[in-house]
Write a structure and sequence with these properties.
With 437 residues, the chain is α/β, with parallel strands linked by helices. It folds into 2 domains: 2-157, 3-Layer(aba) Sandwich (Rossmann fold); 183-430, Ribokinase (UDP-N-acetylmuramoyl-L-alanine:D-glutamate ligase, 3-Layer(aba) Sandwich), CATH 3.40.1190.20. It has 14 helices and 16 strands. The strands form 2 sheets. Strands 7-16-15-14-13-12-11-8-9-10 form a 10-stranded mixed beta sheet, with helices on both faces. Helix 7 (226-229) links the parallel strand 9 (216-222) and strand 10. The longest helix has 22 residues, at 397-418. The two termini are 20 Å apart.
């Protein structure tokens, strides 16, 4: 906790520690020892009426960070009026809060506030994420969820279908390339993308695919935008797609969908999507508009299929509302995968989920709200497809997908730390460059 507090502040900053009567309060008190060059105030909080006046005095000094050690995971009943008022007063001040294990007032199992919950900027949870912290009702309180994994806890005998992704999972990944090698060893990616008014999506996807460094990339784009797309790409081969229903050339994986959103998309394009999804033995990644054209037919056994919907697209696939998707994202992912041939599903959004109808589902921690801008999904789709074009990376499909999602979010985090006004074109330049421990 002390190390994270130091990272969130600067020398000489004031830190206010809110210490409750339980073990979370003990943790917060102990953190003080590691904050030698900060001005630290420890507020021993009870439910007395005087505490509100004391809190107002502390908040008036506008501390750089508040450490929330009021309540932990044992809270299982509604808070009393005094505590509700205390937490609401803290939230109104809009200070940066670092929560110990769980934001105070939040039910760690359900994610629901127990009358009120501290709105943290960062929650440093201990050992492993608590189930409630991954639910939508908790997101506004949790902020950025981080996990302190190695704190000397006894081994836990329990397992979960949800697996929290850590940067350390990708140590040494992707593996180093052999010295004696050539572009034919790293696959040929075909991208079908771009239509009138949406040609930029094709360019972003192709450039992001280059960052994954497959051997070759061919972009098949609508004839109406060929002359807008081709001059923006050099190493990527660009071909004008004609309504003949086939793709020329031999490929190792296929991405279809980015920017295929024009109102007059030909039926042949939709038929092509259905046929490739149903029949192709190569990996197929479907994104954006192509998601609406996918058939419910079985796909070849062991063929890799990946779907990358955001909550709105997931709702269309399941014929429900985005709110229903967000209320149970795990169930939504399982159902989408089941409907579309046990495909891998990347359910985008806060804490992106990666999984299939059965087996582990991976929860991605990287990324920030500034990914919510047009073109971000095109970058992810292109980068992921570029990785899956490479035979060596297809040997571990779930790890490769998780790496693509983590790298995409980590690139956004790196950009946000450098400057507040980065754009998607910067994301293309950065994705793939973040190193794991």
């Amino acid at each position: 906790m002390a190390r994270r507090a130091l990272e969130l502040t600067q020398a000489g900053d004031q830190i206010l520690i809110l210490a409750g009567k339980g073990h979370n309060g003990d943790d917060a008190r102990c953190a003080r020892e590691g904050l030698a060059d900060r001005r630290v105030e420890v507020f021993e909080v009870t439910e007395s009426a005087e505490d509100l006046a004391k809190l107002d005095a502390f908040l008036a000094s506008r501390p750089a960070l508040v450490v929330d050690g009021l309540f932990g995971i044992g809270l299982n009943r509604p808070l009393g009026p005094g505590w509700v008022s205390f937490i609401e007063r803290l939230n109104v001040a809009r200070l940066r809060v670092l929560a110990v294990d769980v934001p105070s007032g939040l039910n760690a199992d359900t994610g629901e506030p127990q009358g009120a919950a501290v709105a943290a900027a960062v929650t440093l949870t201990i050992g492993a994420p608590k189930a409630g912290l991954l639910r939508e009702p908790a997101w506004a309180s949790v902020g950025c969820l981080e996990v302190a994994t190695d704190v000397g806890l006894a081994p836990c005998p329990h397992t979960s279908e949800l697996q929290w992704v850590l940067p350390e999972d990708f140590s040494g990944f992707p593996p180093a390339r052999r010295v004696a090698t050539h572009k034919g060893d790293y696959g040929h990616l075909a991208i079908v993308a771009g239509s009138l008014g949406y040609h930029g999506a094709a360019v972003l996807a192709a450039r992001a695919a280059q960052r994954a460094r497959p051997g070759l990339i061919t972009l098949h784009t609508m004839e109406s935008v060929y002359h807008a797309v081709a001059p923006q790409l050099q190493a990527v081969m660009v071909s004008a797609w004609l309504a003949q229903g086939k793709l020329a050339g031999l490929h190792d994986s296929l991405l279809i969908g980015p920017g295929l959103a024009a109102a007059d998309m030909p039926d042949q394009m939709k038929l092509l999507t259905r046929n490739l999804w149903r029949d192709l033995f190569l990996p197929v990644i479907a994104d954006a508009s192509a998601l609406d054209w996918l058939p419910l037919d079985p796909v070849p056994r062991h063929a890799v299929r990946v779907i990358t919907p955001h909550p709105g697209e997931a709702a269309r696939l399941l014929r429900c509302t985005p709110q229903q998707v967000q209320a149970n994202r795990l169930s939504a992912l399982r159902n989408i995968s089941r409907r579309f041939g046990n495909a891998w599903v990347v359910l985008k959004g806060h804490q992106t989920l990666i999984g299939r109808s059965v087996g582990d589902v991976y929860v991605n921690p990287s990324g920030n709200p500034h990914l919510a801008q047009g073109g971000s999904g095109d970058v992810l789709a292109g980068y992921l497809a570029g990785l899956l074009a490479q035979p060596e990376l297809r040997a571990d499909v779930p790890k490769t997908i998780c790496y693509a999602v983590w790298q995409h979010g980590a690139a956004a985090d790196l950009l946000q730390a450098r400057r507040p006004n980065w754009v998607v074109e910067d994301l293309v330049e950065t994705v793939g460059s973040v190193k794991s421990p």
